[in-house]
Amino acid sequence: MPINGVHHVVLLVSDIPHGEAFYEELFDMEVLFREGILDGEVGTVPEHIDWEDALLKGVTPTMSFLGRDEFFLAVAGVESEVTDRRVDHIALAVDEVTFESVTNRAEKLGCPVERNAPHHRTFEDNQGFEWEINASSSPPTQAFDTLNI
Known about the structure:
single chain, alpha+beta, 9-stranded mixed beta sheet, 20% helix
């Protein structure tokens, strides 16, 4: 049952554009994609639009995905300032066999598994951590359609 490594980590931040800029500078990363909500629709912000322009056009930031080399990090909005959990989830890169094996093991241990996409499943463990198993290749790609801004 090979686990190929951490696929990505999502950190919860109070200000997504600020968090993006901080980690981009700290780790010399590049923005791979941004996600937000426009008129109630969740989508990917077009590549040519930065957060400053997106905010002016009414986009509510929900996540920025950054990467470099084999390191991928996302910053997402924290739902409440009163939380002890600042890591949203841990995503593991796995092959198809391990993908099914971990799914079965999680269910056997009483963890309800959410089947989000053909290559993507999530579950919360008995310690309260959310895990994602991801059978897609790195780097992560956008999950939503591009917003029409």
